């Protein structure tokens, strides 16, 4: 059964009166809905009985036309049509769960990539799509998915994210009704949950934009810089110190790649499992400047196989950030909760949702 028919029949069960308007409109022709038929009948009945057959036909057509347009005007002025249409066209939570399931299936199946999962790079895609938000101008954010286009796709910070975008392309083909911007953010949620992280409620409503909406380079953080840069970047999005630290805990996942950013290596020993290890290692391990040809980064004294970026080190060095690093290092549950809250906020920056957000959905994890 097609998506439309499924949603239409669901809507019909839930709200029979609304559903019939929508079916009439959906067929894309002047289908006379029961309501309009009723109005047309009224128009025909008022036609003088002495009129010729031709006149009657014209009068019927005119009456039917007026009735249909009257019904449309009524529906428009009552704002019934858009609402009803959306109610039926809007995919349900069940439909988005299918998207989630497909992303989860591909994450499990395509385990040859990097440390065995596309999850980290998919999570990074969702963050870089959202982290361009500027609260002062209302520009940027996940709405638009403008990283599909140059120049944004070529911004230094986004190098390598083509892997995540390509990974998600078959999902977009399978579910063409979902916007890229909803897909990328939902895929980020899927990655977090499927790699053992917290439950992240999510809601749809993002619309794709064209290349004119690309944000200027420089809105994402520069890993070579210090605490004041981190604050400049994240305060611009509307985050505070606690949220900056919580979000940075995503570096428990994945690794840096020399051919993308110049940095190299994973932050912990389980880069495909979402944990609070990033914070524990930051606090408990001794970090030394790595001696190499690449940009300044840190390496753990014990094994010399892990890495920290200068911005990661800023989290333990700065008096405003450090208490949160210590809290998260001690208590994984607190980190999970505060990461989830900040990540929900990140994914929704600048998105013109309708409603108050009470309709966020929680998706079931795969078995
Ligand atoms: C605080 C400022 C941040 C800086 C300066 C930063 C910088 C970086 C850099 C340089 C990399 C290496 C990319 C590569 O070479 O492939 C990286 C990877 C990553 N970042 Fe961040 N990041 C920051 C915050 C975040 C946030 C807020 C998230 C998510 C909520 C995040 C998620 C990730 C993930 C998952 C990876 C691994 C990607 C992979 O394995 O391909 N980062 N980040």
UniProtKB/TrEMBL annotation:
Q: Which GO terms label this protein's molecular function in UniProt? A: cytochrome-c peroxidase activity; heme binding; metal ion binding
Q: Name one GO biological process term.
A: hydrogen peroxide catabolic process
Q: Where is this region: Disordered?
A: 200-222
Q: From the Swiss-Prot or TrEMBL record, state where the protein is found.
A: Mitochondrion intermembrane space; Mitochondrion matrix
Q: Which UniProt keywords apply?
A: Heme, Iron, Metal-binding, Mitochondrion, Oxidoreductase, Peroxidase, Transit peptide
Q: Where is the Plant heme peroxidase family profile domain?
A: 115-367
EC number(s) stated in the UniProt entry for this protein:
1.11.1.-
Cross-referenced Gene3D superfamilies: 1.10.520.10, Peroxidase, domain 2
**GO cellular component term of the entry, any:** mitochondrial intermembrane space
Taking the record's annotation, the residue ranges forming a coiled coil are none
Reaction catalysis annotation: 2 Fe(II)-[cytochrome c] + H2O2 + 2 H(+) = 2 Fe(III)-[cytochrome c] + 2 H2O
Q: Which InterPro entries match?
A: Ccp1-like, Haem_peroxidase, Haem_peroxidase_sf, Peroxidase_I, Peroxidases_AS, Peroxidases_heam-ligand_BS
Q: Which CDD domains match?
A: ascorbate_peroxidase
Could you confirm whether the keyword S-adenosyl-L-methionine appears in this record?
A: no
On whether Oxidoreductase is a keyword of this UniProt record, the answer is yes
Tell me, in a sentence or two, what this protein's role is: Destroys radicals which are normally produced within the cells and which are toxic to biological systems.
For this chain, the family text in UniProt reads: Belongs to the peroxidase family. Cytochrome c peroxidase subfamily.
Quaternary structure (record): Forms a one-to-one complex with cytochrome c.
| Stated name of the protein | Peroxidase
Q: Which organism is it from?
A: Aspergillus calidoustus
């Amino acid at each position: 059964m097609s998506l439309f028919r499924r949603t239409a029949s669901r809507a019909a069960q839930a709200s029979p009166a609304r559903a019939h308007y929508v079916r009439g409109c959906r067929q894309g022709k002047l289908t006379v809905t029961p309501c309009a038929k009723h109005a047309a009948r009224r128009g025909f009945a008022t036609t003088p009985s002495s009129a010729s057959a031709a006149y009657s036909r014209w009068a019927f057509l005119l009456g039917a036309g007026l009735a249909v347009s009257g019904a449309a005007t009524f529906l428009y002025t009552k704002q019934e049509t858009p609402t009803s249409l959306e109610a039926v066209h809007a995919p349900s939570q069940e439909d988005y769960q299918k998207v989630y399931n497909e992303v989860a299936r591909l994450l499990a199946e395509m385990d040859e990539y990097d440390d065995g999962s596309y999850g980290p790079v998919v999570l990074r895609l969702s963050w870089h799509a959202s982290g361009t938000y500027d609260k002062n101008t209302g520009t940027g954010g996940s709405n638009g998915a403008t990283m599909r286009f140059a120049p944004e796709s070529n911004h230094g910070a986004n190098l390598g994210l083509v892997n995540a975008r390509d990974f998600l392309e078959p999902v977009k083909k399978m579910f063409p009704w979902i916007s890229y911007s909803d897909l990328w953010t939902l895929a980020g949620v899927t990655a977090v949950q499927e790699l053992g992280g917290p439950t992240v409620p999510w809601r749809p409503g993002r619309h794709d934009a064209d290349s004119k909406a690309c944000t200027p380079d420089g809105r994402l953080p520069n890993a070579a810089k210090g605490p004041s840069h981190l604050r400049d970047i994240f305060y611009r999005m509307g985050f505070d110190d606690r949220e900056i630290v919580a979000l940075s805990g995503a570096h428990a996942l994945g690794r840096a790649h020399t051919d993308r950013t110049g940095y190299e290596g994973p932050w912990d020993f389980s880069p495909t499992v979402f944990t609070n290890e990033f914070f524990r290692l930051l606090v408990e391990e001794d970090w030394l400047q790595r001696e190499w040809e690449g940009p300044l980064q840190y390496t753990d004294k014990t094994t010399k196989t892990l890495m920290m970026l200068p911005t990661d080190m800023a989290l333990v060095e700065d008096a405003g950030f450090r208490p949160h690093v210590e809290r998260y290092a001690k208590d994984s549950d607190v980190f999970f909760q505060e990461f989830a809250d900040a990540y929900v906020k990140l994914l929704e920056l600048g998105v013109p949702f309708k409603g108050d957000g009470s309709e966020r959905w929680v998706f079931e994890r795969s078995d």
